[in-house]
Amino acid sequence: MEVGAKILVYMGTPRGATRNFFNGPWIYAGAVDGVATTGAQSPATMAAPKALVLGQLVTCYARIHRADGRLSEPFTASFTVAA
């Protein structure tokens, strides 16, 4: 809920669903702008920077970039590509 803040989103290289560990390389996927009254819009839609195939496992991470330049700790999420 801050004008000038952003959520920076990065995507890892898609991989087979049985591979559990991933620590890079990361590809910049996009940003979600902060809004003073409502916060970041959810859900945000952005194009995947790599081609995705049904059944692949993808790990993404995001950081909040505050208007004054501070960065949050990264937070991650993994998902399986579905139709």
Per-chain topology:
Layout: E1 6-12, E2 26-33, E3 57-65, E4 75-80
Antiparallel strand pairs: 1-2, 1-3, 3-4
What would your notes on this structure say?
The chain is mainly β and 83 residues long. It has one domain. It has no helices and four strands. The protein has a four-stranded antiparallel sheet with strand order 2-1-3-4, with no helix packed on it. The radius of gyration is 14 Å and the shape is elongated. 7% of the residues are buried. The mean pLDDT is 89.
Quick recap:
With 83 residues, this protein is an all-beta fold.
Helix fraction by DSSP (H/I, runs of at least 4): under 10%
Q: Helix count, per DSSP?
A: 0
β-strand percent reads 35-45%
Main pleated-sheet profile: 4 strands, antiparallel
Order of helices and strands: EEEE
Radius of gyration: 14 Å
Widest β-sheet, arrangement of strands: 2-1-3-4
E-strand count: 4
Give the overall average pLDDT: 89
Question: How many domains make up the coordinates?
Answer: 1
* Class per helix and strand makeup: mainly beta
Which regions are unreliable across 5 or more consecutive residues at pLDDT < 50?
none
Report the principal-axis shape.
elongated
